[in-house]
Amino acid sequence: MDLVVNILSMTVPFSVAILLASTGEMFNQRSGVFNLGCEGIMAMGAFIGMLIPFLVGGGGPVSGVYNWLGLLAATLIGALLGLFFGLIVVTFRAPQGIAGIGLQMFGVGTAGTLFRHFVGGTQSIPGMNSTPIPLLSRIPVIGPIFFSHNLMVYIAFLFVPAAWYVLFKTSWGLKVRAVGTHPRAADSMGINVNRTRYEALALGGALAGLAGAYLSVCQVKMFSDELIAGRGFIAVALVYFGHWHPVKIMAGALLFSFAQTIQYNVQGLGIDLPYEFFVMLPYIVVIVVLAFTSKNQKTGPAALGKPFNREMRT
Amino acid sequence: MNRNFKIAYKVSVIVLAVLATLLLSSLILMILGADILKTFYTIVITPLTRVGHITEVFVRAVPLCIIALGVAVAYRSGIINIGAEGQMAMGILGFTTVAVTMPDTPRFILLPFALLCGMLCGALWGFIPGILKAKLDVSELLSTVMLNYIAAQFYSFCLRVPLLDPAERLSGAGTPQSARLTANIEIGRISGRLHYGIFIALVLAVLVYLFMWKTSYGYKMRASGAQSRAARYGGINVPFYVTLAMVISGAFAGLAGGVEIAAVHRRAIEGVTNNYGFSAVVVALFGMLHPFGIVPASFFFALLIYGSTLTPRAVGVPANIVDVMQGLIIIVIVTTQMILQNSYLEDRVWRWFKTRTGKEEV
């Protein structure tokens, strides 16, 4: 029982990075843009997020404000990279898959380069402390699983209903879905397709940057080249799995995070398999899930991956 | 619109693209506070100044070229293979397994057999995303990346347990590496670490050209990539050719891994793949997805990769700068292609040009 509680209480905070990035990617894809550069944006966010508390405190303890400042800066740099991606795929209409790979290499490379110059070797930061919610965190089983994490965890899970509300209940959400489903119709109704896509990309990039910073500031409390470890790509896959719906995406994030958590509890589970096979597990889950969910992509945004050209007759 | 204008337009777009790449990389260098010109000099010129440097560039060009040829075959068939990193790792495992289990076999059997085994392992790792794409519509971009991570873990497991050098096991040091290969499986060296594998790369380039442009298989694969619906209407079994393309692509990456071990490292160690799988995508695009473009492109990117290993000492710029440049180059290439294809934009520039010069031409 302790073991189950232990695994589940790690599952919740570990899912946050994927959850945030995936929610952002959902907005991108709902607007018709497939942003594979998510991994690169996360890497940049993770680097910027840890850089600010590190520069202020030199690796020592810092006031919590600087952690938040790091998260904020990561969000901004993520939004900027999202807009940069918009320039490439919305304005210049470059093929989105390969351009995303370019953005991923650029982001990961830049984060690694700047990290080596400004930070140097492996440096940990104190990061964000956990803030158990009074009373609620003392409930047995449920308390440690849901209510004894750092503040970002609660905020991230509040983003799920917020994303649902924005996407389905606001006029901006309607615009995003319109340009992702039938840009030409949206255009003739006076919606600025490219502008809406830029906005969605900025929001998606901001969330991806925040997700990266969550990893470096709140979860691992350091930066390294292998920090993101494919979480950006998992986030993209999760959007398919979650059928472009925030709540289903949250369920997916928890599932993948569960697969990831198992590697930290191998001894307790008493399974005699080499360590590496547990590290593989989440990636295998992604492939299996993709194999089962990709065929019915018909339910997704109809204009996903298709650049929009006002001047072109169809 | 006259012909001179069209040529001038194309040239100026390409020049602008090169400038954009340089400008954006300079921006990163500026943040680092490095000497920009000296950095570019160290990356592009210094490696060409000594024979010892040039052979090292060629050593990196060989795997890049072999993998990029495979990537181009896949790309032409409509499937983007960014999983060459994992396919190469699997190829190394296949090659090394044969090499260490039957070291006493005569050379002319052992070397081809081991290379073939490496190719098979790589091909298998390419077959998985290929068949998933063909039958189940799984995005190859995602599945190949996931397979990279899986292969990386499997690779370090194999080096740590089944393939571990017995000497390491006895001494207890446990450095994850395989036993050293016997002399009868090594590929010889020409000068420095430059090895005869370079001829494998060149021969493959010609073979890929013949296969893709002079056989019906190649034609059908290119047709599947160019217009898959039209190809299907024309009676081409598109899923089969897409899978075949991935199998070939994986086999090439596996071969590159085998050659790398046989000629350069002579035992399987950590870090052999060295991001070649991702760089090869850039090489393939930069070489315009054509074998005769890929050969010089692989040399150019090997130059960048080797040059960037010199920058930390020469100008204090981390070697990761090469990843930044490669990412930018991909972005700039795909963007430039779209701009060149955009006839509306060209027309608009032409009209602007006419109003500025005031010349009326038909």
Shape of chain B: globular
Count of helical regions of chain A:
13
Counting helices, strands and paired strands, the structural category of chain B is mainly alpha
Poorly predicted parts of chain A: none
Task: Label the overall shape of chain A.
Answer: globular
Q: What integer is the average pLDDT of chain A?
A: 90
* Beta-strand residue percentage of chain B: under 5%
Q: How would a crystallographer describe the biggest sheet of chain A?
A: none
E-strand count of chain B: 2
The string of secondary-structure elements of chain B, in order, is HHHHHHHEEHHHHHHHH
User: Considering DSSP H and I runs of 4 or more, what fraction of the residues of chain B is helical?
Assistant: over 70%
Output the strand order for the largest sheet of chain B: 1-2
CATH class of chain A, named Mainly Alpha
Mean pLDDT over all positions of chain B:
92
What would you say this structure looks like, in words?
The complex is a heterodimer of chains A (about 325) and B (about 350). With about 325 residues, chain A is mostly helical. Chain A has a single domain, classed as ABC transporter involved in vitamin B12 uptake, BtuC (Orthogonal Bundle), CATH 1.10.3470. Helix content of chain A is about 70%, strand content about 0%. In chain A, α2 runs parallel beside α4, α7 crosses α9 and α10 crosses α11. Chain B is mainly α and about 350 residues long. Chain B has a domain of about 230 residues. Chains A and B meet through α4, α10 and α13 of A and α1, α5, α6, α12 and α14 of B.
